[in-house]
UniProtKB/TrEMBL annotation:
Residues covered by the HTH lysR-type domain: 28-85
Family: Belongs to the LysR transcriptional regulatory family.
Residue ranges crossing the lipid bilayer per the database entry: none
Name by which UniProt lists this protein: DNA-binding transcriptional LysR family regulator
SUPFAM superfamilies: Periplasmic binding protein-like II, Winged helix' DNA-binding domain
Listed Gene3D superfamilies: Periplasmic binding protein-like II, Winged helix-like DNA-binding domain superfamily/Winged helix DNA-binding domain
GO cellular component terms attached to this protein's record: protein-DNA complex
Length: 319
């Protein structure tokens, strides 16, 4: 006589379907697992119900539904309470593991949602030596010490392109214009300063204007923010009737300042940089010139840490 095959799922198979999400139509629910484990821990439905602050009948009914779903009895009921069957002991090991993994996952998601942990990438176009951006990142780090913050230098178009692609969470750049596909909000302004050798004749003046600079040679870096400084100089000096002398140097921001000290030319910088002291140079404010800075981000970005940074930036900007 041919053997009859039992097609009922084992308790292990049913739990695997629940946790792995392999397409099973199992009706087992998370609360059923919690009620089952509580009944084991307390030795009776009555004590488990009291601990969970629910009706005893609710636990009894949910455990019975679980047994029906699994196709196996999990408990032997007796006057003093319940004890596990062989199937129940086997199911308990996996049920505890599943609940433990779910609790770990919930805790991790909660910490990310509160920005207690996480990662954020910030594009900048300003010095971090002082000012709004320095204060913002310092305050954010103090409030969210476990969030990793990566800082990337670059020019505004590159940063905005990265924000659109969600490669950057947020960028802080000059200007107040709109950017297609991005959100933008004005945050702060910085004064513009001329950087010149400390023995330059103009160093004797407390403040400079564009007419003072019409005949000067300027140097800019070939990396950000060199091109923007070049364009800024052209926009303001071209109408003064003098030949513009602006030379690009293949060095970074700090070495440009050293070249100024060596007498190779003048350059411009923003207010945040002026706290950094380099030998042989001095800073002079350029009259009536300010640079607005904006925060740019994507509405599609769902990074909780980014949302916290945006919120903090808005709060600091208004204070």
């Amino acid at each position: 006589m041919p053997a009859t095959r039992n097609n009922r799922p084992s308790p292990d198979d049913a739990l695997t379907n629940i946790v792995a999400g392999n397409g099973s139509k199992s009706a087992v629910r998370l609360h059923q697992l919690r009620y089952f484990v509580a009944a084991v821990d307390y030795g009776s439905f009555r004590k488990a119900a009291a601990a969970l602050a629910i009706q005893e009948s609710s636990i009894s009914r949910r455990v019975r539904d679980l047994e029906d779903e699994l196709g196996a009895s999990l408990f032997i009921r007796h006057a003093g309470g319940v004890r596990l069957t062989v199937a129940g002991r086997e199911f308990l090991r996996n049920a505890r593991h599943a609940l433990r993994q779910i609790d770990i996952g919930v805790a991790k998601v909660a910490t990310v949602g509160r920005a207690e942990q996480g990662h954020i990438t910030v594009g900048i176009f300003s010095s971090l030596a002082s000012g709004f951006l320095f204060d913002l990142l310092r305050n954010f780090g103090e409030r969210h010490p476990k969030v990793q913050v990566d800082i990337l230098d670059g020019n505004p178009p590159e940063h905005v392109a990265a924000v659109r692609k969600l490669c950057l969470d947020v960028a802080f750049i000059t200007g107040t214009g709109a950017w297609d596909g991005c959100e933008a909000e004005h945050m702060w302004c910085e004064k513009v300063f001329v950087v010149l050798p400390d023995n330059h004749p103009l160093a004797d003046k407390p403040e400079l204007d564009w007419a003072d600079l019409a005949s000067e040679r300027f140097i800019v870096s070939d990396v950000a923010p060199g091109q923007e400084i070049h364009d800024y100089l052209v926009a303001h000096l071209a109408g003064l009737g003098r030949h513009l002398d602006i030379r690009s140097q293949q060095v970074g921001r700090d070495n440009i300042l050293s070249l100024v000290a060596l007498g190779r030319g003048l350059t411009l910088t923003s207010e945040a940089t002026t706290v950094a002291r380099f030998p042989g140079i001095t800073y002079r404010e350029l009259a009536d010139e300010v640079l607005p800075f904006s925060m740019v981000w994507s509405a599609q970005n769902d990074n909780p840490a980014c949302r916290r940074l945006l919120s903090l930036a808005r709060s600091m900007s208004k204070s």
